[in-house]
Amino acid sequence: MTPAHQGPADMDRSRPTPARIYDYMLGGNNNFPADQQAAKQILAAVPEVRDAAWANRGFHQRAATWIANRGVRQFIDIGSGLPTVGNTHEVVCRVSSDIRVVYVDNDPMVRLHSETLLEGQTGVAAILGDLRDPDTLLNHPELRALIDFSQPAGLLMTGVMMFVADGSNPWRLVSGYVAELAPGSYLSLSHLTGDHKSPQAAAGFQAVFDTATEHLYLRSKTEVERFFDGLDLVPPYAGAEPGLSYAGLWGAEDLEAADTDGSRWLYCGVARRP
Ligand SMILES: C[S@@+](CC[C@H](N)C(=O)[O-])C[C@H]1O[C@@H](n2cnc3c(N)ncnc32)[C@H](O)[C@@H]1O
Known about the structure:
alpha/beta, binds S-adenosylmethionine, 274 residues, eight-stranded mixed beta sheet
């Protein structure tokens, strides 16, 4: 496990952040009392939330591996989160050792820990950036140095667009990123939903983020599907039609075991840019 780090001196530890709450849910120790308190409040409203976090993380890893197996050799992982077991570059490098990965996150703790993790590694970079500012992000010199926009890339946006308000037009942001990528690129995206959930559980989940650094927005299946407009969704598992699935089901071999209550908090999909 990564040792706890106090983070930059000027960092606000009193407000919970999505990255540190998620780290707590996954059993990490890169979080502070405010994050732990927030995570416990979420657990009280949604007892299966740890399972949801693991279902999402499993989807992230299976989808990245699947995309690498299609021959894609470069990845942009936006809203990458704190380093955990099975980081993107570790997972895709099992497919090929010549894969390049750029991590992007707006939480300073993420960059700090990623720098430590990536020290001495070539072909991997971690940049501090806000996805709501695509121009700055896409023109970042470290990203430009590793990503060749004339070649297909894997754009990973798992568990992140739910922190972007409708007012920032999250759909236009995602389609803007995809438009920069070469044909044959892939988008992998997952998103929390309130569909088929008790209104109390959904409200309790969202309320915790009212005092966090980002608000949380649960979206319906139709709203999540819109992120893939103009792209070719792939079947989530053998025998399925192309489309979204719950997080645990994507790429699952044992569908019954994967179809858990936690998994049903997230829709996910992988789609190819024609
Ligand atoms: C729930 S974690 C998901 C981590 C990882 N993608 C995964 O699926 O396992 C959400 C991450 O998105 C990051 N994030 C939230 N809003 C962001 C923004 N506007 N720009 C960049 N990153 C953001 C958070 O800091 C956090 O690390």
